[in-house]
Amino acid sequence: MADVLTLAFVGIVPIGVAFVLLAGLRWSAARAMGVGWLLATAIGLTYWSMEPDWLVASAVYGALQAVDIILIVFGAILLMNYLEGSGAIATIRWYFGQIEEDRRIQVLLIGLGFMTIIEGAAGFGTPGALAAPLFIGLGFPPLAAAVFGLYFNAPNPPFGAAGTPVIGGTGAVIEPALSGSMSVGEFLSMVSAWSGIVTGLTYVFWGLLGVFFMTYWFGDGDRSVGGAVRSTLPIAPFALLLGAVTGGTQLVIAWFVGPALPDIAAGFVVLAVGLLLANNDVLVPEREWDFPDESTWSDTWLGGLDPDEVSRDEPQKEMSVLMAWTPYLLVALALLVTRWPDLTVAGVAVLDWIQSFSVSLDSILGTELGYTLQYLYLPGTMPFIPIAILTGFLHRMDTSEMGAAWRRSIQQVAPAALTLVIAVSMTQIMIQSQTNTADLLGMMEALSRALARGAGGLLPLASPWIGAIGSFMTGSNTSSNILFSVLQYNAAETVGLSRVVVVSLQNVGGGLGNMVSVLNVAAICGVVGITGNEGDLLRKAVVPMAVYAVFAGLFGMLLTYVLVPGLF
Questions:
Q1: How far apart are CA 233 and CA 399, in angstroms?
Q2: What is the DSSP string of 418-454?
Q3: Is the pLDDT of residue 333 over 90?
Q4: What are the two backbone dihedrals, phi and then psi, of residue 25, each rounded to the nearest 5 degrees?
Q5: Residue 300 or residue 122, greater confidence
Q6: Does the N terminus or the C terminus of the chain have fewer Cβ atoms within 10 A?
């Protein structure tokens, strides 16, 4: 039998080549993953001697698992497009323009509140795409708008789009690794809980750290660490309180309810608390902080634009603010009711009843692999799509506006759907290659053992970086979890460390990697209008990304060896 390192070297070829094509040659994700899929298939048939019918069944199984993710993404994007078309998003943008003028408070309310809500409801790069133009409309330099559109989209992606990275990412691939030790649902609940511990604690200092970076990178006069500290200290009580509220809410919901609701709930709670404090001048510094005069902005800050080229569109109030937020409030309420573990109505357990509605395929091509779609439990089909349709009537949209929302959603989701089908299918081929006639370890198992051998007892330190690499290349926390959850699980099992903690760190790492993702950086530069200046943005975003990764890794070590050493 070939040794582990040889198997790992061969097994990493599909992922490695796909990453090189993505990052090095700037291929689209679908094309790059397509090449990876072909390589995984060829290696599986030849080197691993997989039976053709088993390989095809594994590929189909992966494609069907991707359907769950696609439905969630489509539902989230559909609701967003209904809100765009109805004028709700314009109203929300208008509202933020009417509140506190201190830039430190603006960045905290939008970053911790608005962006967290949008991540929980839509995910997949939407928070930055909506927040960056909002920042510019408020008077932020284009580079600052892009930087903080990415910065605040780091602790929330692990629960993005109603928990897609956990439910649709890790959940799509983890079952074979569990080997019956517990149900997929139980394991995902634990990953949700411990991911929430890490991200919740991060949020406590994340807002304050963001203000420090803003005053350091974009301040007037004394642009030094000392000057940034002096500008940050007056807002520290406000920032720490909002950070604690965001993190505490996210942690509690992730622990007791599950991965679908933490971001939406945390965003609404912190936005309510923050607006209450700001409107009543509680913990608000006496002196406002602002950017230097626009005439002094450097070419780097402007991203190569002339000052008069910077978009200053003035969003209009097109409905009441409460009506604009109502669809998101309904989503939060629906997710709370349908995900609360112990909720019973007339003696019927609501969660069990909802999960009982399913469509199943017991055997794929005559193999032991099967697929089940729980259509009332899936956030895409319930509540996103029904609430999107309801939004059309609540906001009095005409049929042409509603039709346009559906067309835009299909156009936006189609490329991502193809990528997801290919990526999950490729990952399942690699996982299921453990069933072969050559009596070899599977590709993913070999990679996991090589990782375990290399990292050893320091695996928790490495885990967030591995998750970050996945999202750096793919632009998606979900895709990173699809690629690496099983690898991290098996590596932790080999080393004898907590599989729950390590997979949770993978999930957290997938979120922090969004800050420096090739795709996200290019997208937000395009939204802001500073395409070609991606390097300036990356040089800034990589600093907080590294801070977060080190913190998550060190805290993971503390959990693994001190706080919960016996956790599954």
A1: 52
A2: HHHHHHHHHHHHHHHTTS-TT----HHHHHHHHHHHH
A3: no
A4: -100, 0
A5: 300
A6: N
